[in-house]
Amino acid sequence: MTTDRYNAFAVALHWAMAVAIIGMLIGGFVMTSELLDKSQRFTMIQWHKALGVLMLLAIAARLVLRLATHPPALPNYMMGWERTAAGLGHIALYALMLIMPITGWLMVSSSQYGLPTLVFGWFTWPHLPGVAADDAVNGAAKALHYYAAFAFIAVIASHLAGTVKHIWMDGHALLYRMWFDTPKRALLGLGGVAASVLALAVLPLGGAASVSTPSLNAPAVSVADAAPGAYVVDYGASTVSFSGIHAGDQFRGTFSEWSADIQFDPGALADSRADIRFALSSASTGNPFYDGTLPESDWFDIANHPEGRFAATSVVAGDQDGTFIMEGDLTLRGKSLPLRLPFTYDVVEDGTAIVKGSVIADRLAYGIGENSDATAEWVSQEITIDIDIRAARQSDDESDLSS
User: Fold this and answer.
1) DSSP code of residue 15
2) Residue 160 gets which letter from DSSP?
3) What is residue 365's three-state secondary structure?
4) In a shared domain, residues 240 and 176
5) Which residues constitute the domain of residue 268?
6) Is 221 part of any domain?
7) CA separation for the pair 252, 242 (Å, rounded)
């Protein structure tokens, strides 16, 4: 059976993509504007990347649909040159719908920043292989992406002009071919597009690489004060966190997997020590864009260095009562550098020992982000590391201090 209309799914996909393409073109120019602050630009770029992936999947679906079905024939009243122009226009539209997301994908894959593409928390879109941090490829992709945007605008304008000509000048209701004939078909078409998007969301389309990291077993954390007895850490009430500035905004992250072995007695500082380990893969800031970037090779590089560690070999008294300084080494990305961690020690009425410390580390000294942000244009060079450890007294007759 032949028809002079496109089916409901094709109509819904056409209009959904039309809205998305126009929005992407506008957003692409807006996000490069100097009127936006860095935080807004960063967010818009991440959304642009995610929508670009969906656009690539949508055009792939549209091409499959076009090959699997026969579109309605052009109206008999169209002249030969109009048919040729319509055919060439559609070829240009399909070509640009592929060129734009593919060049964008190539830009992201070859960028020095190496940021992952997170598609609204559904999945992580992989980078193209073999082009990482390639400035030549990145420059070519940027140029093609930029000029293709103007070509896209010109082709869309000519497409709209042709439609207007047929409706207003020729008096033919050509638009009905790409519109719903009944409300029911509209709902079916839109529902089909929505279902397709949801289906894509659960497919394993290049999800984030899974890196196996050793589990950090929580060892005994004993904090001995002047009185006999030991303390065991309360991991639920304790935190190891980090914070800094990104694009002018404050961020804070925590490690959900960490362990500590602390021997401390204010009256016997010579015998005191500390060993704090944290699984870098467990870092979370609550921002999916940040969390997707941290495991990358230019940042924490968890594939090769899954663990961070602060090992204090000595503890000295601070300038004020109840203040102390741990002296040791902080190890990140396989590099160990000396660090002095000032901290306070207090025992509250219920016997809980509270150890709080804060220190500023230079991320570039450890090679963190040195390729993608060596000048600290986006992420602050100084990163604050905080510890807040709560430990409860264990009864003297308990010899097992494991937690």
Assistant:
1) H
2) H
3) helix
4) no
5) 230-394
6) no
7) 6
Task: Give the span between the Cα atoms of 283 and 299, in whole angstroms.
Answer: 12
Query: Which distant-in-sequence residues (6+ apart) come within 8 Å of 263 by Cβ?
Result: 222, 223, 224, 271, 272, 273, 274
CB-CB contact of 164 with 158 (8 Å):
no
Would you tell me the crossing angle of helices 8-30 and 183-202 to the nearest 10 degrees?
A: 60
Say whether both 385 and 289 belong to one domain. Answer: yes
Domain total of the chain:
2
**Does 196 lie in the same domain as 105?**
yes
| Digit-coded pLDDT (tens) for 34-44 | 778 888 888 88
Per residue, the 3-state secondary structure of 120-145, as one string, reads: CCCEEECCCCCCCCCHHHHHHHHHHH
Q: What is the pTM of this model?
A: 0.68
SS3 string, 175-244, reads HHHHCCCCHHHHHHHHHHHHHHHHHHHHCCCCCCCCCCCCCCCCCCCCCCCCCCCEEEECCCCCEEEEEE
Kindly give, in sequence order, each residue whose CB lies less than 8 Å from that of residue 399, ignoring residues fewer than 6 positions away. none
| Distance from C-alpha of 343 to C-alpha of 261, rounded to nearest angstrom | 16
Instruction: Give the chain's radius of gyration (CA, Å).
Output: 30
36-67 tens-digit pLDDT = 888 888 888 888 999 999 889 888 888 887 78
Q: What is the CATH number of the domain that holds 126?
A: 1.20.950
Orientation of helix 8-30 relative to helix 135-164, angle to 10°: 130
Q: Are 74 and 83 in contact (CB under 8 A)?
A: yes
What Å distances lie between residue 93 and 5, 80, 98, 227, CA to CA? Answer: 20, 20, 9, 79
- Does 13 share its domain with 130? yes
Q: Mean pLDDT score of the chain, rounded to an integer? A: 81
Does residue 207 sit within a domain?
Answer: no
pLDDT at 336: 96
Nearest-angstrom CA–CA distance, 325 and 134:
45
Q: Which two tokens stand for residue 39?
A: 């935080």
Q: Are 384 and 358 in contact (CB under 8 A)?
A: yes
Task: List Cα–Cα distances, 144 to 59, 107, 149, 151, in angstroms.
Answer: 19, 10, 8, 10
Per-residue pLDDT tens digits for 134-143: 999 999 999 9
Note whether 190 and 9 are within 8 A (CB).
no
